[in-house]
Design goal:
CATH architecture of the largest domain: 3-Layer(bba) Sandwich
Number of helices: 15
Bound molecules: flavin-adenine dinucleotide
Radius of gyration: 22 Å
Largest sheet: 6 strands, mixed
Number of domains: 2
Shape: globular
Length: about 400
C-alpha cells in the first residue's frame, strides 16, 4: 500500500496553495489529488468575470512569485481587472505546473480513519495511507436547491453550477432566482446571448459592490479608502479591515463573528454588472410559492399572486456548507467530526476535532471568517497549515496573520 505523510484532496486554489507551502518542508512527503481548477473550468459559465479584485485573486505561494503578473509575462498574455474566468483558469493551471508537479488527478472515492492515519481509496481501487489529511474539496458538494424545485427534472430547473455554456438557452424564456453574483452574472450572460430573462429575488434591494460611492471614495479619498477597505476585497467599509485578519476574528465572541460573517457574505453583485442588467426585469421582495411542469415548460407561482410559464428556471441559490455531504468521507468519520450547522469546528492550523484532519476553503468560514470563501483566504490558510504541520519555525519563515494586508496592499 502506498504511503505519504500528508494527503491533500483538492487541486483548486486552496489545495494547490497548501501543497506549494507544505512542499517547502524538507523530507515531508505530500501527495495531492484532484483535477486542477476543475470547478472553475466546468461549473462556472463561459464569459464570466471574477468578482474579486486583482490583488484578491492571486493564489498564495510561499515565495510570492507565482502571481498573475508573472503568469502574464511567462505566457505573453494580457488581461486586467475584472479578471476573465478563462484567464484565471489558465493562471491556475500554470500555478499547478510550477509548484505542484506530479499532481495525481485521480478522484478519491472514500476516506476512512484508523489509529495509523487515513486510508484513501482511489476511484481505480488503489489505496493510499496518509498520516495527515487536508480536505480542500471546494463547494461543489454543497449546491442549494430550494425544496419547491426538489422533484423537478434538471431540464426544467437547474442550479447555476450545472452550466458551462449558457448560450444553449438562446431564444428561450428563463427565470433566474437569486440576487447574488452567480444569479446576476448568469442573468447578464443569458440576456447578452439572446435569452428572454427575468430575475426574481427575496431581497428587497440588490447590493452592488464597488458601486459609485465606493469608486468615488477609492479615487477621491485614497487614504481614507485604504483605511476602510483592505486589499483582501471582502466585506463592507470598516468591516473589510477586520475580516482581513482571521487570527483576530476567531478570537472574538461568537455573536460578533457571526455578525461579521453575515455582513461580509450577503448576496451582492459586482458594481460593473449593473449596466449589463439595465434591460433585464428584476422583481425584488418576491419568493416562489410553487413550481410545476406544464408539458415541456414550467409554471412558477410567486408570493405576489403572479404566475410565469417559462422554458427554464435557473437557480442562483448558492451553496450551504455541510461537510457530511462530501461523499468521499466515510459516514462514521463524517459523523465523528465536531460540527456546527454543517461547518467543522476548526482550531489553529485548520485542524478539526479529529487530530490531523484539516479542512480548507469554505468549510473553514465558521472558524476563520468570510475570507475563507474566496481565493484570497489562501494567503492565510496555507501559512497557518504550514505552521501547524511543520512547527512554528517553518511557519514564521512565511508570515501568518497581520502582514497579509500589507503584502496584498
Ligand atoms: C460562480 C462563482 C464565482 C466565483 N467567483 C469568485 C471570485 O471572483 N473570486 C473568489 O475569490 N472566489 C470566487 N468564487 C468562490 C470560489 O469557488 C472559491 O474561492 C474557490 O473555488 C475556492 O477554492 P477551493 O480550492 O476551495 O475549491 P475548488 O476550486 O472548488 O477546488 C476543489 C478541488 O477539489 C477537487 N475534488 C473534489 N472532490 C474530490 C475528490 N473526491 N477527489 C479528488 N479531488 C476532489 C476538485 O477536482 C477540485 O480540484 C466563486 C464561486 C462561484 C460559484
Amino acid at each position: 500500500m502506498a504511503k505519504c505523510d500528508v494527503a491533500i484532496i483538492g487541486a483548486g486554489p486552496y489545495g494547490l496553495s497548501a501543497t506549494a507551502h507544505l512542499r517547502t518542508v524538507k523530507g515531508l512527503d505530500v501527495h495531492t489529488f484532484g483535477e486542477p481548477m476543475s470547478f472553475w473550468e466546468r461549473n462556472m459559465p463561459k464569459g464570466m468575470l471574477l468578482r474579486s479584485g486583482w490583488a484578491a485573486s492571486q493564489i498564495a505561494d510561499p515565495n510570492q512569485s507565482l502571481t498573475m503578473e508573472a503568469y502574464q509575462a511567462a505566457s505573453r498574455t494580457h488581461f486586467s481587472s475584472p479578471v476573465p474566468l478563462d484567464h484565471f483558469v489558465e493562471y491556475g493551471h500554470w500555478y499547478q505546473r510550477q509548484s505542484v508537479p506530479g499532481l495525481d488527478s485521480r478522484k478519491i472515492a472514500r476516506v476512512e480513519s484508523d489509529s495509523k492515519g487515513f486510508r484513501l481509496m482511489l476511484q481505480d481501487g488503489e489505496t493510499v495511507l496518509a498520516g495527515r489529511l487536508v480536505v480542500a474539496a471546494g463547494i461543489g458538494s454543497f449546491t442549494w436547491r430550494p425544496p419547491e424545485f426538489a422533484s423537478l427534472p434538471c431540464s426544467l430547473a437547474s442550479h447555476t453550477s450545472e452550466h458551462r455554456e449558457l448560450r444553449r438557452f438562446a431564444g428561450k424564456q428563463v427565470l433566474v432566482i437569486g440576487s447574488g453574483q452567480s444569479a446576476l452574472e448568469s442573468a447578464a450572460l443569458l440576456h447578452e446571448s439572446g435569452t428572454e430573462v427575468e430575475i426574481v429575488a427575496r431581497a428587497r434591494q440588490i447590493r452592488w459592490l464597488g458601486g459609485l460611492v465606493s469608486r468615488t471614495m477609492q479615487h477621491g479619498l485614497g487614504t481614507i479608502s485604504k483605511l476602510l477597505y483592505a486589499p483582501t476585497d471582502v466585506g463592507p467599509a470598516g468591516i473589510s479591515q477586520v475580516v482581513a485578519r482571521p487570527d483576530f476574528v476567531r478570537r472574538m465572541p461568537r455573536s460578533i463573528q457571526d455578525w461579521l460573517r453575515n455582513r461580509s457574505i450577503r448576496p451582492a453583485g459586482a458594481g460593473w454588472l449593473a449596466a449589463r442588467l439595465q434591460n433585464v426585469p428584476i422583481n425584488l421582495g418576491r419568493s416562489i410559492v410553487s413550481a410545476a411542469p406544464v408539458g415541456e415548460r414550467i409554471r412558477v407561482q410567486l408570493n405576489d399572486g403572479s404566475e410565469r410559464t417559462i422554458d427554464h428556471v435557473l437557480l442562483g441559490t448558492g451553496y450551504r456548507v455541510d461537510v457530511s455531504k462530501y461523499d468521499f468521507l466515510a459516514p462514521k468519520l463524517a459523523q465523528s467530526i465536531s460540527r456546527f450547522q454543517g461547518y467543522p469546528r476548526l482550531r489553529g492550523g485548520f485542524e478539526s476535532s479529529i487530530p490531523r484532519l484539516h479542512f480548507l476553503g469554505a468549510p473553514a468560514i465558521w472558524s476563520f471568517g468570510p475570507l475563507m470563501q474566496f481565493v484570497v483566504g489562501t494567503h492565510y490558510s496555507s501559512r497557518a497549515l504550514l505552521r501547524c504541520v511543520a512547527g512554528k519555525a517553518a511557519g514564521d519563515r512565511v508570515r501568518v496573520g497581520e502582514p497579509l494586508v500589507a503584502e496584498l496592499g
